[in-house]
Amino acid sequence: MQDLEILKLMENSKSLALNFPFCTIEPSVGVMTLADEVEWNHSASRDRWLRPARNIVSVSCYLLKLHIKLKMRSMRAYGDEFVVVSVGEQPEVDLTEITINCPDKVGLGCDIARIVFEFGVSITRGDLVTDGRWCFVALWVIPRKSMLPMRWTLMKQRLEEACPSNLPSLLPLPSPPVSLSQRILLLQVSSIDRTGLLNDVSQKLWELEFTIHKVKVSTTPEEKSINFFFISDSRNKLPWRKRGDEVVQQVKELLGTNCSCCDIQQASQELRGLEILPPPAWLTMDLVYDEPPTFEKRRSDSIGIQNVSSATIEVKDDTINSPLHTLLQVTCKRRKGLLYDTLRCVKDLKLQVAHMRIASLEDGNSEISVFFLDCKGRKVTDQASKDNILYSVREAVENPLRIKIITRGVDTELFVSTPIENCGRGRPRVVYDVTLALKLLDVGIFQADIGRHEVDNHKWEVYRFLLSDREDFNLTCTKNRNLIIERVQDMLLG
């Protein structure tokens, strides 16, 4: 039997990508059901396909040839682009298919999940397979209800930028790299204060493809809001002046005559605000380590749903599907950022992903399966390592962020704390989602600040909002405080 005939059998049988042994990290063993209902077992160490003992047939086939031919077939099937976004006829109802075919890199799955999360779309199902050199990703997504416009072209561009470019014949030439320290700009906006001002400016900056790293907001007794945004251009372009002028013009048009000052300049080294600092006096341990209840339990308490259990997470061996890998399986309530939180933890633990799958279950849960090896390419066998992975993933999935309201004297402050990735990135969309939730509740922000601090050897990004009280919405009322926490939580986690 020739190798192309084997390829044809595999394609006709619609075998799962997980069962293709050349789509996992070598050395590899796989079992698949072909069109003629024959099981073929391949041992990478022998470079040949073997039929079970009941009817042994030796097949000469080289893994590399099969891998290249399958890869090139997929490239022809999806076109010459390495990122393809096929938008449904009715994007709000029909699923949009995102396919990525590119060289692999450490943490690629996390980077992709982060971008999809940032654009506010929900992943209904998806697959990621890699042999350690080349990666193929397929995701089926649908936009969530949001006030932000869905920008598929921009999402495609961001996904392309996340893909490695070590094959110039297939990938477009990247823009010249610019260090983040050179790209931090300081935008100063002064305007008459109003509810939703911070959210409106945040939305405009996102539409202009700028990332907010730090915010400082204060309100004067004359009800004038002074805002400082430390931002970077996601287009990664220099010189920055032309893009800076574009930001100033757009923000002025947004605020109209209420805007008294809008200026942008390159932030000085001491003002860039990206350093990890010791915790200040107001950052107490209970803000991040007060045994926060699971997301599912908080959700059930807030909206009255009963019998909602916490996430089911297992780290185990799966000798049937992939005997050479360890399986991480996560099952919990479907929510925003679930795949990102899972793969962020996997990336920070330096685990090598061979295959990942996410699926939506009928009971409203999502199930994520990750086949992985340790950082040295070995199967995880000792129980201590498995327990450490289990603890870390459980913390990332069940407690992706902390939300608290604290009253100190006459001040009522809202705190949102999120973990920082090992690479230094914070959680996306936090400023926009929190300020949108407060805007919809008609709750004003008197002061706001974002700081990066290390607490108990863990790095946190802490968002601090001093809320404005009003006569018909007393912030000392337990009911109103719980309502704020519920709305902010639903906006962040959905």
Automatic annotation (TrEMBL):
Q: Which residues form the ACT domain?
A: 186-269
Q: InterPro entries given for it?
A: ACR1-12, ACR2/9/10_N, ACT-like_dom_sf, ACT_ACR9/10_C, ACT_dom
What SUPFAM superfamilies does the database record attribute to this sequence?
A: ACT-like
Highest taxon of the lineage:
Eukaryota
Q: Which UniProt keywords apply?
A: Repeat
Mind telling me what this protein is named? Answer: ACT domain-containing protein
